[in-house]
Write a structure and sequence with these properties.
The complex is a heterodimer of chains A (262) and B (279). Chain A has 262 residues and is mostly helical. In chain A, 32% of the residues are buried. Chain A has a domain at 129-262: Outer Surface Protein A, domain 3. In chain A, 48% of the residues lie in helices and 11% in strands. Chain B has a single domain, classed as TIM Barrel (Alpha-Beta Barrel), CATH 3.20.20. Chain B has helices at 23-29, 49-60, 80-93, 122-139, 161-172, 180-190, 194-200, 231-244, 260-277, and strands at residues 14-17, 36-39, 63-66, 98-101, 104-107, 110-116, 144-146, 175-179, 206-211, 215-216, 221-222, 249-251. In chain B, the strands form 3 sheets. In chain B, strands 1-2-3-4-7-8-9-12 form an 8-stranded parallel beta barrel, surrounded by 4 helices. Chain B is globular. The relative contact order of chain B is 0.13. Classes of the chains: A mainly alpha (262), B alpha/beta (279). The interface between A and B is large, with 43 and 48 residues.
């Protein structure tokens, strides 16, 4: 028995349990007592798939709530087969689930479900993002803005705090998310035809999590900052409001944490 | 670790596995628990609330870091990124011990997020010892290896699990985290004498014990960590304390986690056995 080959066969027997793969995985496993080798493999399969499913339930609780636990597990069956986890941290697994749900034909009538999944993934990323005090992305602090020369002003590259995530959706998914939280006691109806929403997802310095709707100007502004555009190029973008009215709140709210000169 | 940032990193008595649902209670009421085990893999992200909470817990209690991601029995190369994060976490939190399992979890870079069995023979022994030594060298400290619960055995195993573990500890220099529930679960699943297993382990290498509850299935026991410690596991624990002395013991409870008071009661029960038998 070659250990590497057996580990590969075992993996296939778990995630791709064709008759041939199960047979290969069971080679060298003792059949003793009341359980055959393949029944013993089944115990591990249930444990592995159950563990990963539990992990995804933790990251996508609203999706699970919307479709029910049983349907959620069923929906994941092929996802787990098609998308191996490449990190020892189960928390890194699930980035591809929103796209998978979008292609999952039995759920095609739940048009908002992939968008809710994407929102939950971005929430999860923001929750685990690096802390501002550990982040070295900005060379200059905001206090140093006053000492920037006129010549340098256009080349300022503002740095957003590291947890910030942005997304657009055709549906009011932030309301769907909100009404699926444990402490929600408001209205239980959402009008899917309300129109598209732009969302800013971030973790505040006190570790509270926020999902804030943005107007179109704000969304374009934060997108430009996230893309690393210099201030001169941001100023050339089309906004309905003066750019100062976008910049000042971003600085005051702590969403901009510093800057670099490009 | 000559200059500790925290008061102490020594552990004694019966500690608890820290679970997210209990953070608030532990931080606000500061219960009289001698130490906590943190699942290291839950604290390896770049930042955020879990890490902040771990720091706060560590200010009040000694801790151990328990891992499930080293994949020590895998035929893949060791995951240096994982070990680098673990080392950084260990430098921040100064755990009494770092532990992982006699198991594999990944192959070809694909993770199962589970603890999978290995054949017990000379080849696997060399493989495990080499990788444990590399990890210990990388982390700059001895690690503890835990015996797994298992549901299958291999035709190619030519030594018992207790012999394998004893030799592994001797050759690699690792120390042992003996999971009493795992021994009991495997003893029923594979029909061996759990008392003989305990009696065969090198007492001087045993630094920590784990206790948990299993679930009785139709034809086997499943290590679910979802119930109170069962009576035969307490019985085996008492034998272990007689054999190893008063060894720091952890109550693990991962599914259907009860309120904190229930967990605390389990820890107090362990301590009663520990102090009564180790006098």
């Amino acid at each position: 028995m070659n250990l590497k080959k057996w580990q590969q066969d075992f993996y296939q027997g778990i995630f791709h349990p064709s008759q041939n793969n199960i047979q290969l995985a069971c080679q060298g496993i003792n059949t003793t007592g009341n359980l055959s080798a393949s029944q013993r493999l089944d115990i591990y399969r249930d444990s592995i798939l159950g563990g990963i499913t539990d992990g995804l339930s933790g990251v996508f609780p609203v999706c699970e709530n919307l479709v029910g636990s049983q349907y959620f597990s069923h929906m994941l069956t092929d996802f787990l087969k098609q998308n191996p986890s490449y990190s020892p941290d189960l928390g890194n697994y699930g980035a591809l689930l929103p796209n998978y749900i979008a292609q999952f034909k039995p759920a095609k009538d739940l048009v908002y479900l992939p968008e809710v999944a994407k929102l939950e993934w971005l929430w999860h990323k923001a929750f685990n993002a690096s802390d501002v005090h550990n982040n070295n992305a900005a060379i200059y602090t905001l206090e140093q803005l006053a000492s920037i020369t006129e010549n340098e002003q256009g080349r300022i590259q503002f740095v957003l705090q590291p947890s910030i995530q942005l997304m657009q959706s055709d549906y009011p998914i932030h309301l769907i998310w909100e009404m699926n939280q444990d402490n929600y006691d408001g209205q239980k109806q959402v009008d899917l035809n309300e129109g598209e929403v732009n969302l800013l997802i971030f973790r505040a310095p006190d570790y509270s999590m926020h999902i804030n709707p943005l107007n179109k100007d704000e969304f374009i502004f934060y997108q430009a900052l996230q893309a690393g555009l210099i201030f001169l190029d941001i100023a050339k973008l089309t906004f309905t409001a003066p750019i100062e009215t976008l910049l000042a709140p971003a600085i005051q709210s702590g969403l901009i944490i510093g800057f670099n000169i490009a | 670790m000559s200059q500790l940032k925290f008061k102490s990193n020594a552990i004694y008595g019966a500690g608890l596995g820290l679970r997210a649902s209990h953070y608030q209670e532990v931080l606000s009421s500061k219960p009289n628990i001698p130490w906590f085990e943190l699942l290291a893999d839950n604290y390896m992200s770049d930042g955020g609330l879990p890490i902040e909470r771990a720091h706060k817990i560590r200010q009040n209690y000694p801790i151990t870091l328990h891992c499930v991601g080293m994949s020590l029995g895998s035929c893949d190369p060791l995951n240096i990124n994982y070990l680098t994060r673990l080392k950084a976490l260990s430098e921040k939190l100064e755990p009494a011990y770092i532990s992982d399992h006699l198991a594999w979890a990944s192959i070809d870079g694909q993770y199962t997020h589970d603890l999978l069995p290995l054949p017990y023979n000379a080849h696997t022994l060399d493989h495990m010892c080499e990788r444990i030594s590399k990890v210990q060298e990388f982390l700059g400290r001895t690690i503890l290896i835990e015996n797994p619960s298992s549901y299958l055995t291999f035709e190619e195993s030519d030594m018992t699990e207790w012999d394998f573990i004893s030799q592994m500890a001797k050759i690699s220099g690792c120390e042992l985290l003996v999971d009493i529930n795992n021994i009991y679960v495997s003893s029923i699943n594979h029909k061996f004498d759990p008392l003989h297993y305990v009696a065969s382990l090198p007492a001087e290498k045993v630094k920590e014990l784990h206790l948990a509850g299993f679930t009785k299935m139709d034809n086997y026991l499943l290590d679910t960590h979802s119930e109170k410690v069962h009576p035969p596991v307490w019985q085996l624990y008492r034998a272990a304390i007689k054999q190893f002395g008063a060894t720091p013991t952890l109550i693990e409870w991962d599914s259907d986690v009860p309120d904190f008071a229930t967990l605390h009661q389990e820890a107090l029960t362990a301590e009663r056995h520990m102090w009564a038998l180790s006098q």
